[in-house]
Specification:
- It comes from Halostreptopolyspora alba.
- It is an enzyme of class 2 (transferase).
- GO terms for molecular function: ubiquitin protein ligase activity; zinc ion binding.
- By secondary structure, the protein is α+β, with helices and mostly antiparallel strands.
- The chain folds into two domains: about 60 residues; about 190 residues, no CATH class.
- It has four helices and 13 strands.
- The strands form three sheets. A five-stranded mixed beta barrel has the order 1-6-7-12-11. A four-stranded antiparallel β-sheet has the order 5-4-10-9, with no helix packed on it.
- Strand 2 and strand 3 form a beta hairpin.
- Helix 1 packs antiparallel against helix 4.
């Protein structure tokens, strides 16, 4: 009888701990499954969702400079120059300025690997997002034009989207074109807030911050049953067994 009561008391103590452990485990892994219906329930709340990037409603994009298929692309133009020396200065100092940059704003999808059918993806609105880990698909240096000499093969200038601006300081050395893409199937993590558009969940920037999109293969491949998850399950199972054994002993001996 005393053993049964002790087991029941232990189960009563462990039950809240097991409940909290299971809830923490569910919250830990929930973001790694970008299901449209589940994410929609978090409308107006911050969220972290991980999965694979897929084409959005407008289909696969083509990058501006390299003409590479992707779901997002961005490019930048740098002007390298010699800093003009002041009076009494010796030598030359090399520097560079960004004179153009652009990032696509078309929404793309985030899906569970292998489940990319219509209605099963969550949209990501990348306008103004901070995106890290994208693939650099182009990097080219083009020398400055010389008077009376045909310009180098600068076929990229006409493809630059947006305005070229900046203070052209010093003496131009060359221009550098760089472009990054997020390819279809890339594993990413998006940190933002859920907004419903026509009933469909879209990950957007939080009210006082920026949407962050990261390339994170390790997080996306995290197995469902990590040590924390296993611990939560074992704690819950141990609580149930303790309660059952205690109840049987108490009733059997009573």
């Amino acid at each position: 009888m005393a053993i049964g009561v002790a087991l029941l008391a232990g189960a009563a103590i462990l039950a809240p701990l097991a409940y909290r452990a299971v809830r923490r485990s569910c919250r830990r892994h929930g973001p790694y499954r970008p299901r449209s219906a589940a994410v929609a329930k978090r409308a107006g709340q911050p969220i972290t969702v991980a999965g694979v990037a897929v084409a959005g409603p407008g289909g696969v994009l083509e990058s501006q400079l390299a003409r590479t298929d992707c779901v997002w692309h961005g490019h930048e133009v740098l002007r390298h120059f010699w800093v003009l020396p002041g009076d009494g200065d010796e030598g030359q100092e090399r520097a560079c300025d960004s004179i153009a940059d652009y990032a696509s704003t078309e929404p793309f999808g985030l899906a569970v690997p292998g489940r990319t059918r219509e209605g099963s993806t969550v949209l990501v609105d990348p306008a103004g997002a901070e995106l890290s880990g994208a693939d650099m698909c182009l990097q080219r240096l083009v020398g400055r034009p010389q008077r009376g000499v045909p310009a180098p093969a600068d076929d990229l200038l006409a493809r630059v989207k947006g305005r070229i601006s900046g203070i052209f300081r010093g003496e131009t050395i060359e221009f550098e074109y760089r472009e990054w893409v997020l390819r279809h199937g890339s594993r990413i993590v998006a940190h933002g807030m859920v907004e419903l558009r026509d009933g469909r969940p879209v990950i957007v920037p939080p009210p006082h911050g920026r949407l962050r999109v990261e390339r994170d293969d390790s997080a996306a491949r995290t197995p469902w049953f990590e040590p924390r998850t296993v611990g939560a399950v074992l704690l819950g199972a141990g609580t149930a067994v303790s309660a059952g054994a205690g109840l049987l002993l108490t009733l059997g001996l009573g």
